[in-house]
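Section 5.1 Outputs to date
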Amino acid sequence: MRHGNKVNNLGRKAAHRKAMLSNMACSLIEHKRINTTVAKAKALRVYVEPLLTKAKTDSTHSRRTVFSYLQNKDIVAELFRDVAPKIADRQGGYTRIIRTGYRLGDNAEMCMIELVDFNELYNTDKAKKTTRRSRRGGSKKEAGETVAAVDSAEVVEETTEETPTAEAVAAVETAEVVEETTEEAPAAEESPAEEAEGDQTEGSEEEK
């Protein structure tokens, strides 16, 4: 009968249970995720999350307290060096349990328990930027906005290509003026010579 038994004994004595949870916690910190049964995962979550909270304050007392549970200097060093900086901004809830089905032999419910901040699939920048958008026509509006932006960009490029600059217009006008002056100058020089020849022909006709 269960009277006030809040702890899941997992079918083991106290010493065996503590040693198993200590080894599972070391494996979780080293590999960042492990596969186990749901009952063991729930017991491990209660066991390891206070240690992760303790690892946020890097002091000799904290290291000795965590070492008393894990009994592994390498894992304690990795916890304070690699894991603690990643969970520094998280206020609890360091682990995630994902159920994976049932074991073939005894039909025990299996799961994967992992450290939340070390899962790159769930922790992306797009997931952090959550914006509420209505499902009705949201994609159509976005598509229309993108098309309008592309059209405006093309119109700007066309206008910039077609409209000449003021310097280019001034250069063309000066070139036209220079050509007109060069064409009119010989005509002006030839006109006095033609008048002199005309006078000589008139004088010769009068003498005759």
